[in-house]
Write a structure and sequence with these properties.
Elements (H helix, E strand, L loop, with lengths): L10 E9 L7 E4 L2 H4 L7 E7 L6 H16 L8 E8 L5 E10 L4 E8 L4 H4 L30 E7 L4 E7 L6 H19 L44 E7 L1 H17 L3 H6 L2 H17 L6 E2 L1 E6 L17 E5 L3 E2 H21 L3 H13 L14 E5 L17 E4 L8 E6 L7 E7 L1 H7 L3 H6 L7 H5 L1
Parallel strand pairs: 6-7, 11-14, 14-16
Antiparallel strand pairs: 1-6, 2-5, 3-8, 3-15, 4-5, 7-8, 9-17, 10-13, 11-12, 16-17
Helix pairs in contact: 2-4, 5-7, 5-8, 7-8, 7-10
């Protein structure tokens, strides 16, 4: 069911507070190629919907603020700002600039808001588009990462609902990728739990030293521009619809087995042995969205996916690396007619080949190519005929329990969305289930809603634990 026409936001801001870490020596952390390339992207906007806490929202904000101040003692770059430095030659001429995180304890922001008359059921209606009211649970809707020179790198909005609370996290993507972002949030949540029920904390040692292809500490990445303002674009996407779709562990296993059987029938035993649930789900989205778009038979299309470089580098980066280290890998281009004719198994194997090809050598070649010709990514770089698989079901979203129980649902704001973007979340029920947030133009979503193959794989929404116990 399409979302209703936009209406005035029911959300009103009650208070704003700045939260700073304990004093520490000032430090500058240079941004790498991976970080700088994000400066024209939107801030990350992810949030968690909770049942009401056993105390007032005002007390909740105090509780979150105190724990946030504590976690910033360890994750102090989050409280910094970006700074651009110009570089000059021997004659004093500007030859370029670099960007770093100025860790001077400038602070993050926490906002207390109220959504009058909005209930949990309004936020997560069954079998419907994600309601537009969700977008109002996130601040900095028009900000791009470059704005972190002036804006906080992290802002939290705690929105009081009629029967719950939504905690929206807005985080500068040039600061780090989703892996480090969710590690930070889980560290904050663990401290919050311990403040209510004292317990030992997990030792956390995030690695802030940036990676260098030559080994050792990274030097500032000097870009051949006096400043970066000319590279920053603020693009408005077309009207979009988004659906949150549930895939149970059983449904994903069936998708994987179907792909495996098709590959065996085609004689691709290696592909059949290597196929994964992620590849099978990517195949479903790629082929069904291609069909819904009605692409011309000769039109080429690809499936892209965000991939973590940490374990693929040699030597590997530690899991605690705090920065960006992701790339968007891609299948080989294929004509739309060929993609649809070759079937589910072939498309899953094509995604698998793209994943397997992303090696240490490939990563280093990409870094070298970017260094030779630096670019800052914008929505212009996304292929309107392809699909993009983003986020990750490996992120511990539901581990972010701030002291009164597991979240009811995870949602996102309007940032970094475009036609063909699918963001994968862990299913709330666990067990290997996945929730996928799919964004399409209204006409493409309407066509997809008639695709029998696609909807045969989508599972009914899992009820909350409280309902399953009744």
């Amino acid at each position: 069911m399409p979302s209703p026409s936009p209406s005035p936001s029911p959300v009103r801001v009650v208070s704003r507070r700045t939260v700073t870490p304990p004093p520490r020596p000032r430090e500058s952390i240079p941004l790498t190629t991976w970080d700088v390339s994000m400066l024209s992207c939107d801030y990350i906007q992810k949030g968690l919907l909770f049942a009401p806490p056993p105390f007032s929202t005002a007390d909740l904000v105090d509780h979150l603020q105190a724990a946030l101040a504590d976690v910033l003692a360890t994750y102090y770059p989050v409280a910094g700002r970006f700074a651009t430095e110009q570089h000059r030659d021997d004659k004093g001429h500007v030859v370029g600039c670099s960007v770093s995180i100025d860790c001077a304890g400038q602070g993050v922001e926490i906002i207390h808001a109220v959504a009058d008359g909005v209930a949990i059921a309004d936020v997560i209606p069954p079998d419907a588009d994600v309601p537009r009211v969700v977008q109002s649970f996130f601040p900095l809707n028009d900000a791009v990462d470059y704005d972190g020179h002036e804006l906080p790198l992290f802002v939290v909005q705690v929105t009081e609902l009629a029967d719950g609370v939504f905690v929206g996290f807005v985080y500068n993507h040039a600061l780090s990728d989703g892996t480090a972002f969710w590690d930070f949030l889980n560290a904050w949540a663990e401290i919050a739990r311990a403040r209510l029920s004292p317990r030992p904390l997990t030792p956390r040692t995030p690695l802030f030293e940036r990676w260098s292809p030559d080994g050792g500490a990274a030097a500032p990445v000097v870009l051949p521009y006096p400043d970066l303002t000319g590279l920053i674009e603020r693009l408005s996407p077309p009207p979009l619809r988004e659906r949150m779709l549930h895939f149970s562990a059983e449904s994903l296993e069936l998708l994987k087995e179907r792909a495996r059987q098709e590959l065996l029938a085609a004689g691709d035993t290696a592909g059949a042995a290597a196929v994964t649930k992620f590849q099978a789900l990517s195949s479903l989205f790629w082929r069904c969205v291609t069909r819904a778009r009605g692409l011309a038979p000769e039109q080429e299309t690809v499936c892209r996916a965000a991939i973590n470089n940490r374990g693929r580098l040699r030597p590997p980066l530690p899991a605690e690396y705090f920065g960006n280290t992701i790339y968007a890998i891609s299948t080989e281009p294929v004509r739309a007619s060929e993609l649809l004719a070759r079937g589910h198994g072939w498309a899953a194997a094509a995604v698998g080949r793209a994943v397997a090809a992303h090696t240490d050598a490939d990563i280093r070649a990409r870094v070298a190519a970017w260094t030779a010709r630096p670019i800052v990514y914008t929505l212009r770089y996304f292929d309107p005929n392809g699909v993009m698989m983003g986020s990750s079901p490996r992120f511990d979203m539901y581990g972010c329990d701030f002291g009164w129980g597991k979240a009811v649902a995870a949602r996102s704001g309007r940032a970094n969305k475009f036609d063909g973007k699918a963001s994968l979340y862990p299913g709330r029920e666990g067990g290997g289930s996945i929730d996928a947030e799919l964004v399409l133009t209204p006409e493409h979503m309407a066509a997809l809603e008639k695709d029998e193959e696609f909807w045969a794989a989508v599972s009914p929404d899992a009820p909350p634990e409280s309902e399953r116990k009744n």
